[in-house]
Amino acid sequence: MSLAINHLLGLQNVSKNDIQLILDTAVTFREVLDRPIKKVPTLKGTTVVNLFYENSTRTRLSFELAEKRLSADTLNFSTSTSSTKKGETFKDTVRNIEAMKIDMIIVRHKSAGVPLYLTKISNASIINAGDGQHEHPTQALLDMYSIREKLGKLKGLKICIVGDIRHSRVALSNIYGLKTMGAEVSVCAPPTMIPKNLETFGVKVYTDIHKATRENDVLNVLRIQLERNAGSSIPSLREYHNYFGITSEVIEKNNKDILILHPGPINRGVEMSSEVADGPYQIILDQVTNGVAIRMAVLYLLGTKN
Ligand code: CP
Question: What is the pLDDT of residue 75?
Answer without folding.
Answer: 97
